[in-house]
Amino acid sequence: MKATELRAKSVDELNAELIELRRAQFSMRMQLATQQLNKVDQIRKVRRDVARVRTVLAEKSKSSAKAA
Fold this sequence. Notes:
By secondary structure, the chain is mostly helical. Helix content is 81%, strand content 0%. Helix 2 (11-33) runs antiparallel to helix 3 (41-67).
């Protein structure tokens, strides 16, 4: 997932994406704890995607605050 793709989405879509990513992250942590996770590198990718979504949300809220 790229930041340019995220910037094209609305705030509601970004919040939904964030919730989905957080659920995936939780699921992966549980699978890791129970030794059922095969692709350990996926945890890092999801964590970075969460950070990207949060960054874009912060940018959008900052720009809307300046516009008001």
